[in-house]
Structure prediction request, 632 residues.
Amino acid sequence: MSDVFGISVSALQAFQNAINVTANNVANASTAGYDRETVNLTEAIPQSNGAATVGAGVVVNGISRAFSQAAANQLNTSQSSLGQLNALQSYSNQIDNLFGTTVGGLSTALQSFYNGFSNVADAPTSTASRQALLGQAQGVASSFQNASGELNSLNTDVNSRISSDVTQVNSIAQAISSLNAQVVTGTAQAGGQPPNELLDKRDQLVSNLSQLVNVTTTTDTNGALNVFIGNGQPLVLQAQTLNVSVVPNQFNASQLEISSTASGAVISNNITSGDLGGLLAARSQVINPALNQLGQVATAFAQTINSQQAQGLDLSGNLGANIFSVGAPLATGSSANTDAVTASVSVSPNGLGALTANDYILSFMGGTPKLTNTADGTSVTPAGAGTVASPYTAAGISIVLSGAASNGDQFLVRPTATAASSLQVVLSNPAQIAAAGAIKTAAAATNGGAAIISSGTVLNSANPNLLTPATITFANPPTSYAINGGAPVAYVSGGNIAVNGWQVQISGTPASGDSFTIGSNAGGTGDNRNALAAANQQNVGVLQNGTTSINGGVSALITGLGSHAQQINTAQAAQAAVNTQAQSAVQSKSGVNLDEEAAALLQWQQAYQAAAHALTIGASLFTTLINAVNGR
Prediction:
């Protein structure tokens, strides 16, 4: 029945609970993941005495926590984005600093090397200047190797961090699934009242998980939380944990990918946020592209210098030998290929102007090859038949297929990935530096006309007749000429005359019978034409269809990485501000305000005292009643 004693006792119990809950809020004001709690008070069912209905006091209907799923989702999303940018920023800045110093050193080494050719041109027979040039060549090779080594070290670091993150993801997933079981049991035992402490711990784990990977969740009717990562790959389903693991990349076992045990599929492409997403992005967007671009410059540098060497003569009168060697492009088959054993591809550069810093996937469907740019997804059908005589050609590379590829077979082609690390100096004899031009020209002493011949240039150093003597003789009248007595050719003053892999120009007015000779420049040890041409190679456009020089390629690499790092820094700063706002939104909803809790304590204290006073009054009334009954 409703009476002052029952009402007062219910109030005392309710306000005692309220004081305890408020004190607990104060105690956990700095506890990570704690959500402020409040006592839910409802009026007890009133009692009727037939004439009136009188209240029966207060009932504690549960303890609720101030939690907003929407605010938590926003925070988790912002944390995932910030985690991704933090990781990407870390590697972008490291590479920017690396290329500002190490590759800045490469620029210096390149300049010293080209200056070394100028010094050889100043003194073509000097052994000292030639030996110094070889030392400078070694400096360039070391600079390329060091820069490539630093980038590969970063890739190793990425692998280590991916493994560490995956371990953390699985550990958090296991903890969430364990808490799911406890929440379901606790809720059932409490008659549907959720265990707030366990919910706080579980939500904090989800928040921690969101820093590693993009997360979405759903809640079942029994209180269990289902957790999904990436683009919906299940990680926790009630009390079941579906772990993720690291597996080797199908083309490159030295690079780790992320796989879902639920499906057995690689899900790296679906991980776009969190620290894991940032690590994957750093590798695909910064580290590997930098390796490729560095290798593109190394390939162009080695090829242009070796080509120029081949166009001149050394001190022994021989065509110049290669100064540098550079490894062949990488081509690796997928581990999933049907013919992984019998089918393989080999790749070689095929034109510097078309050579890119991109990677490609060579795939086969219906016997037709397709070359897909991994950077933008564009595809082309390469020309050729894939044989030695007729290789596949596209994007500045030639591809030869060995064996028979089956439908669905894939090969990763990396034209420049290892060029920088493999660049080496292969010339050790300074006398073999080809400073002199390969050919020399001369006008016959008996010429009576006013025509002159250029010094000549080499078009094809591989032509077997390059150094074979040739004579150009003008007919009567001198409107045409013949080479070695061959068929007459109409004369155009200043026009190109090309044969045997060389090219000359004759300008002016020749006389009938005038002749000019072209032959080997052997013995021309004082000639410096080829050394001068080599020194100028740094400014000759060879990349990007002839629009970018070696120096320009290095500058573009440094500038591009610096610009990308700045963009990431800006994005990270903006996302950090968004994350701070999301934290403030959660804190305003769920956080403990000590001033509010202090006011609440006073409120509950006063309410408790009032209830106790009511109980005292009830006791006094009861005593008076007893005394009256006893006649006192």
